Structure formats: structure tokens, C-alpha cells
Amino acid sequence: MKDKTIHIIGAGPAGLAAAINLAKAGYEAIVHEKHDDVGNRFDGDFQGIENWSSKEDALSFLKKIGIQINFICAPYRTGHFYGPNLKQVEIKASRPLFYLIERGVGTGSFDQGLKQQALAAGVQFIWNDNVQKLPSEKTIVGTGPKAADVIAKGILFKTSHPNAYYGFLDDRIAPKGYAYLLINEGKATFATCMFENFRDSDHYFEGALKMMQKTVNIDIQEPVPFGGFGNFFLPASKHKNDKALYVGESAGFQDALWGFGIRYALLSGYLAARSILNGEDYEKLTRRYILPSQKASLANRLVFDRFGNWGHQRMLNHMSRSDDALGILQGYYQLSLSRRLLFRIAKRWYHTRLIDKQCMHKNCNCIWCRCGKEDDTRKAELEKMMIA
Ligand SMILES: Cc1cc2nc3c(=O)[nH]c(=O)nc-3n(C[C@H](O)[C@H](O)[C@H](O)COP(=O)(O)OP(=O)(O)OC[C@H]3O[C@@H](n4cnc5c(N)ncnc54)[C@H](O)[C@@H]3O)c2cc1C
Question: Could you read off the pLDDT of 24-69 as tens digits, one per residue?
């Protein structure tokens, strides 16, 4: 008889999407989480489930992968952006550009919503279980990022400003990245996302805050600092090892252009469950459904990096002239011939950054395993640096 017990390490969106689907299909899904609850990686900050990397609307995508909406999930369509010339640009879209969600341990958060769905489906949780060795049974690993390819530093605050979102593209305040302001029902998240110069994050954050206050008329009440980091790499032969399927950011599934990893996390978790349920090859599934847009995102990153502020302004001008910026963004995520070529160049260009720096492989001698003991120290240092 088929063994129907599956261990899932990490209660993030990737691990939980896998657990929910497996438990619904009658499997005994056991989630091991190193914290005492879900969402500990986040601080109640707003994030967006992006709606541009695929033609399929995010809500229908969620439904398809077996996720219900039992968390704050607010559609955001028109928004305002500022490029280096500080002129406001309005971005319009034919459907929501993203769905705003809250991350963290709080009621109504995406993480709590997924946990409730998992519990309802019969998933078992083992809290405070910092797994260091893979169990011998079939395992899904969804432990999130360990190396930082992008960092965010920002504040959460209360405000009387109505619901809205703003984006800021300027290498002087967000090197190779962007700053964002998301406002929902009297609460706001403002952060700068940097893809390089992490050590100067304080300086960039201060600049970003000044730029935001100069351009947006907003009151900031009770600000609290927060920060985080993300990891991107190409999942080279990630799954040929024994019984482990890697999902979410622990598999490198992350958007290299802007760090929108939630859809990748959920999709990879769902695909891992599907491979177990139907006997399909997980690697083939990810190559078909995830890798093309991931490759496109890396090609986009190369362009975004190379053209700097000049490119940012042009991109914003281009999008503002369109009645549907979504169509333009969707185009960016198509792996066209030109993007395939750019991807090949990008793969070489970012060669050292694309190495998988983490691993839970058995008897493995990779860099991450050899430095395994540094994991928490290194993570703590990064977090300290971002929140200070
Ligand atoms: C500040 C910030 C803003 C972001 N904004 C957006 C956004 O707007 N849109 C978007 O799409 N993406 C965004 N992202 C990225 C997105 O949050 C991640 O891509 C997504 O959460 C990845 O999900 P995951 O399940 O792979 O990993 P995680 O969410 O990191 O979950 C991993 C889980 O595994 C647990 N764990 C780790 N190691 C172990 C272990 N050894 N044993 C047991 N448990 C373990 C962790 O505690 C955690 O609960 C943002 C990220 C940051 C940091």
C-alpha cells in the first residue's frame, strides 16, 4: 500500500499550499515549523499577489490551486508612480494590478488564512521544530530564503490617507529596485527594496522616505520599522536528490525582477502536491509552469539593471501612455525569442548570484551545508542590519 504520510518543512505559503492539497486528497500531511505560529517572518506588512505575470487572474489562480479567500485580499487597480524626474505618472490597468494581502501572525493575514485552511483540511502542525535533517520519509521542503539577493527596509504606520498605492523608481533611493507605499483601511506599508548596496540601506531608506513625503500628501502615525530579504536562484537539478521536493523560495522560485515570490511559492507547493498525488515528475512540472516566467524575470532584471534611471523613466512613461499597463507587464513575462537570448546573457552575467546557497541534501558538501551552522547567525545579522 502507498505510504500516505508526507512531511512538509516550513509553514510558508509554499509549504501550506502543498499541505492543503495533500490533506484534502486524504494524505497525512505533517507540517514542521520552526516558529510557534505561521507568519513569523513578517511583521504585518502589506504585500501584493501580483496579477501581471500570467494572463490568468490571481483569484482564479488561487481557486484553481485549492486556496480559498479567507484573508484580507483587496484589489488595487490604478496607482501612481514616480520616476527620477519626480513627476507623477498614473498607471491604469484593465483588471487589478495586484491583490493586497497582509503578512504575519495577525488576524486576517494571508498566513493565518492559509493556516486555517490547512487545519480545516486536517493538516497536522509541529510547532517550534527547527528541522536540520531531512526525515527519511517523503518530504517537501519549503523553508524560504537563506541568502539575500534583495532586501527591503521600511516602516509600518497608521494614516488617515484613503486606500491607494504608490511606486517609486529611482536608483538613488532604491538601487536596482524600487520603493513602494501601500495603504489599506488606515494602515500603511512603506519600504525601499534594494538589489545591491545593502550596507547603505539606512541611507537609501532615508532618501526614499524623503522622496515619498515630498510627493505624497500623507500623515504618518506611530511608525514601526520592519525589513526582510528574498532569495533568487535557478533550481538546477534541485530534485534529483532522494525524496525531497523543494518548493517556494527554498527552491529559488522567486521573481528576479521585483521579488514577487508569492505566486511562485503557491504554485510550486501545489505542483509538488500534484506530483505526489498523480505520480507526475515535479521537475518537469516546474520546468513547464514556473521556469519560463522565472527566466523572463531574469532577462528583465538584466535590462532593468543596465538601463538604470534612464530606463526607469522611459518604462514609466511608456506604461502611463497605455490604458492597460497590465498588458505591457504581461508582455515582459513572456519568454519571447529576444528574452530567451537576454536570459542566456543574464545567466552568465549573474552567474555567482544564481548559485543555490542553501541545501538540506543528505551528506551534501555544498556551500550552504558546510556553513549550515552559520544559518541562524547570518540570518539574525541580516535582520538586525535591516531593522536597525
Ligand atoms: C519585505 C518583503 C516584501 C515582500 N513583498 C512581496 C509582494 O508584495 N509580493 C510577492 O509576491 N512577494 C513578496 N515578497 C516575497 C514573498 O514574501 C516570498 O516569496 C514568499 O513568502 C515565499 O514563500 P515560501 O513559502 O517559499 O517561504 P517563507 O514565506 O519564507 O516560509 C518559509 C517557512 O519555513 C519556516 N522554516 C524555515 N526553516 C525551517 C526549518 N529548518 N524547519 C522548520 N521550519 C522552517 C519559516 O519559519 C517560514 O515559516 C516579499 C518579501 C519580503 C521579505
Answer: 999 999 999 999 999 999 999 999 999 999 999 999 999 999 999 9
Distance 86 CA to ligand 1 centre (A): 32
Minimal-distance CA residue to ligand 1 atom 11: 260
CA of 280 to the centre of ligand 1 (A): 26
Which residue, by CA, sits nearest to atom 29 of ligand 1? Answer: 12
User: Cα(first)–Cα(last) distance of the chain, in Å?
Assistant: 54
**Which strands form 28-32's sheet, in the order they lie side by side?**
124-126, 28-32, 5-9, 139-141, 244-246
Contact 82, 89 (CB under 8 A): yes
Cα(360) to ligand 1 centroid in Å equals 17
Place of cell 505618472: 89
pTM over 0.85: yes
Name residue 47's beta-bridge partners. Answer: 101
16 CA closest ligand 1 atom index? 25
Least confident segment among 158-167, 219-228, 229-238, 327-336: 229-238
| Rounded distance from Cα 10 to ligand 1 centre (Å) | 9
> Under a CB-based contact definition with an 8 Å cutoff, are residues 272 and 18 in contact?
yes
In this structure, of 189-198, 311-320, 346-355, the range with the lowest mean pLDDT score is 346-355
The answer, yes or no, to whether residue 388 has pLDDT greater than 50, is: no
Residue 133 clears pLDDT 90, i.e. is over it: no
Instruction: Identify the CATH assignment for 5-295+352-387 out of 3.40.50.620, 3.40.50.300, 3.50.50.60, 3.40.50.1220.
Output: 3.50.50.60
